[in-house]
Amino acid sequence: MNEELSIVDLQEGTGKAVVKGALIITQYTGTLEDGTVFDSSWERGKPFQCIIGTGRVIKGWDIGLMGMKVGGKRTLRVPAALAYGERSMGAHIKPHSNLVFEIELLEVLTRDE
After folding, report:
1. Which residues are catalytic?
2. What pTM did the predictor assign?
3. Averaged pLDDT for residues 12-24
4. Is the dihedral of CA 20, 68, 7, 49 positive or negative?
């Protein structure tokens, strides 16, 4: 994997688009490059919520989900520099790990709602 963030839309959404500062609700699976699953909201049975674009999640998500529309599915290939960098995270993510996420966008909520 190179040092660039790779964004691949598997399914285009038709709903509201992700904007900086929005609360987003997603289902996702995160894997290492070898396919080892390190995290999955699907397996937990509970969607993941976060504020996007403000540094509360890894940079790869902050950048890679902008403009994605509700109902869409997207694969993000996140280089270590835009993930956890030199830090390890949990049992599986070692320093300098490149990560792959399959993400389904369920909802986008902005302050004006």
Report:
1. 28, 38-39, 58, 84, 101
2. 0.94
3. 97
4. positive
